[in-house]
Amino acid sequence: VFNMAVQSDGWMEPFLHFEVHRNWLAITHSLPVSSWYHENTSEWTLDYPPLFAWFEFGLSKVAQHFDKNMLLVENLNYASPETVMFQRLSVIFTDLVFIFAVRECSRCVQVQKVSRDILDQPSFVLSVLLLWNFGLFVVDHIHFQYNGFLFGFLLLSVAKHLQSEHLQGALLFSILLNLKHIYLYVAPAYGVYLLRDYCFTRDVKDGSIGWRSFSLLRLLVLGGIVVSVFTLSVGPFLVMGQLPQVLSRLFPFKRGLCHAYWAPNIWALYNILDKVLVVLGVRLKLLQEAELPRASMTGGLVQEFQHSVLPSISPATTLFCTLLSILPAVVSIWRRPRGARGFLRCLLLCALGSFMFGWHVHEKAVLLVILPLSILAVESREDAGIFLLLSTTGHYSLFPLLHTPAGELLIKVCLMLMFTTFSFTALRRLHRGKGSLLRPLEVFYLLGLVAVAIACEVVFPLSPWKHRLPFLPLLVTSVYCSVGVCYSFLRLYLSLWRSDCKNVSKTRVPSL
């Protein structure tokens, strides 16, 4: 309601993704299925999996009752009030999936003690952290996407595993994977966990695998669910011989290592290190400025980034680094599953490892970690600290998505302050009496984030550098936030290692 009111006051023009999804509505409504992944009138071609294309097709049947002109492929950048209204309402309506998923997750929270005070109830705090998540609100209801709908499937799948409904969880994740392929990030966690915890029915006393307990029937049922979903989604395009074309749209490796705005990950730090070395090399006359790639001296905020001093990164390199980063987490749940919460921790590490080292990562992908981490944050003091650090850093890294002036600066600052204040207050209250949730160095880092925000959002627009170095706020935001994200990744792994150590000590047989 708040968002629709702001839109009607004319504060916000439709963002890029309005046109992306309007174009997809037009493609799926106006063209035969065989043309969906070939149509390229607009630069915003269909690049989501087939099941999402069918989702857009279903929406188009409703959209025609609002404004039929939005469903014409040639109507590029069409944004009538009826079109914007429909797209806003479609996001709000599909968020019902997310709301239901939050309800299911809240029912899975482990409660140490019962309290009548609602702020002392982990299930209530979790509901607020998820339903009022600042990043999701910005990405879906201002920037515009359907992430709430998609995250609903993810959280519902996680909830089903927490409830030991493994087949339902596998079905939901298979559907999700065919709606948006970014969730391949967490597929290793699902695959290993289901094989280890569902297909092997029991362990030996020391927690290792009981090989004789393997159930071929369970594996066949699980495989049947996955294959059925993929067949329904991809099958028509496979029959038409268009699978290579679909895959080329889903995995466009020509887009370059980094997105136009560097996601706050390890490659942002790698890029800035290359730039620092270039500047030093030029000043020390070790490099000739005229011979350097143009992007290296103008900010590099383009899709293709060519490094000048450090080796350029290939898709194969990012894949190797990603697999290496998630390997310890996957091995951990294979050796000692620790139930559904062990799976959830592995899912978080797979998501964050892929965000850290993946190819052409979008800044919005950090929500793939922040939202599921909310579940652990209300149960564990250590996870609450990681959540506060990562959510504050990750949410601020989304600020450049709202790059239009004045009114939206006030909106995004107020919304983030409200969410962050509640997060700190509620989690401190839940875990009170157990010490501070954040270490002094972490508090100092977050205070630095405030200084970065003031410099980028207030000081820089008024400075003479605004026209000379327009990319500078993006670069500073990306690099500073990268430090916090990388640190959170290490803390998550440290918590996994501590958990493994505790489990080993519990299963160790005392010497006589």
From TrEMBL:
Pfam (any one): Alg6_Alg8
Biological process, per Gene Ontology: protein N-linked glycosylation
Transmembrane segments: 85-102, 123-144, 170-195, 216-239, 313-331, 343-362, 409-431, 443-463, 469-490
Subcellular location: Endoplasmic reticulum membrane
Membrane-protein topology: Multi-pass membrane protein
The organism of origin for this protein: Nothobranchius furzeri (Turquoise killifish)
GO annotations of cellular component type: endoplasmic reticulum membrane
Coiled-coil annotated spans: none
Family: Belongs to the ALG6/ALG8 glucosyltransferase family.
Keywords assigned: Endoplasmic reticulum, Glycosyltransferase, Membrane, Transferase, Transmembrane, Transmembrane helix
GO-annotated molecular function: dolichyl pyrophosphate Glc1Man9GlcNAc2 alpha-1,3-glucosyltransferase activity
Record protein name field: Alpha-1,3-glucosyltransferase
Assigned EC number: 2.4.1.-
Pathway linked to the protein: Protein modification; protein glycosylation
Upper taxonomic lineage: Eukaryota, Metazoa, Chordata, Craniata, Vertebrata
Main location: endoplasmic reticulum
